[in-house]
């Protein structure tokens, strides 16, 4: 069973082709980073226009990579939310057009579910149940995952997402966009304990996150640092950045392991764009191992937004008879709890 998966939820136009919810036959991603770079963040109108330009060539390229024709597809999966409305509409209406012409089933995919399931694109994946930490530019959440389609939200960010914090801190440090990879690289040259930035654990039992206070703390420290030559002799910009990254990683790792222990699961899954961060992966693996918990994460190209994870998720929804009518619409907000309400 071959599924095409389309994602235009934010600033990447992506199309993936996956066989039987396992084998990736193609995964084509057209990044818009260069377009949005001068603006220091994603400009929704520009993103939509760029998706319109790229959706047809990206899907064609995916078919070419897979050595398939449209007629070989058994179903079309597309992200309907959460995301930027104008951007999502491009993918959805293109998918509807394909569905209509090819007379193949349409499956509406929740982007958050796709990030959780992206680990199944790998040959090594956990058995159910497990706890998933999804960390991206728009979301930071912990889920208890009992099966395909069965998720319970354990905690989430109350303000900024972890990736958003990376992007904003890179911006105020004048280091460019998107910030995650830039910060990871700069941190390798810095001292992680140079500045004692706050760690927002909220309450002792809380599995929620908060990163806006940390962002403000970095901003205030930078102001002081820029005005104080003595401080600049003592602490470099890379030290500030490494200390910021350590604060984020400390909280993510601690809460993920607490969640896994609380739910009594043997496996943790790390997914979403921030899961590309090697320091985060290494710290999570080491801390989890001391509690006999195994950590699984997809390779970087499956961590950031991609069509293959949409195709895989679409396949599993289709296997549960969850196809979408032609009237299906996009959803700017689409919490995973809404998926459970349908079951
Ligand atoms: O999952 P994703 O591609 O898009 C969303 O659904 O948001 O995640 C993008 C986010 C950005 O905020 C980016 O800065 C962050 O992932 N990111 C990283 C790294 N690579 C990407 N954050 C930390 N370290 C990285 N190496
Ligand atoms: Zn994403």
Classify the secondary structure makeup into a structural class.
alpha/beta
Query: What would CATH call the architecture of the largest domain?
Result: 2-Layer Sandwich
Helical proportion, percent range:
40-55%
Gyration radius over CA: 20 Å
Quote the average pLDDT.
96
Low-confidence stretches: none
Biggest sheet: strand arrangement:
3-2-1-4-5
Number of domains: 2
How many β strands by DSSP? 10
Strand content: 15-25%
Compute the separation of the termini in Å: 24 Å
Order of helices and strands: EEEHHEHEHEEEHHHHHEHEHHH
Shape: globular
CATH superfamily of the largest domain: ATPase, nucleotide binding domain
Bound molecules: 5'-O-[(R)-(carboxyoxy)(hydroxy)phosphoryl]adenosine, zinc ion
CATH class bucket of the largest domain:
Alpha Beta
Q: What's the helix count?
A: 13
CATH topology of the largest domain: Nucleotidyltransferase, domain 5
Structural topology:
Elements: E1 2-7, E2 12-19, E3 23-31, H1 33-36, H2 44-66, E4 75-81, H3 85-102, E5 106-110, H4 111-117, E6 130-135, E7 140-147, E8 150-156, H5 162-172, H6 179-187, H7 212-227, H8 229-234, H9 237-263, E9 267-271, H10 278-289, E10 294-296, H11 300-303, H12 307-319, H13 337-341
Helix pairs in contact: 2-3, 4-12, 5-6, 5-7, 5-9, 6-9, 7-9, 9-10
This protein binds 5'-O-[(R)-(carboxyoxy)(hydroxy)phosphoryl]adenosine and zinc ion.
Residues 111, 115, 136, 272, 305 line the site of zinc ion.
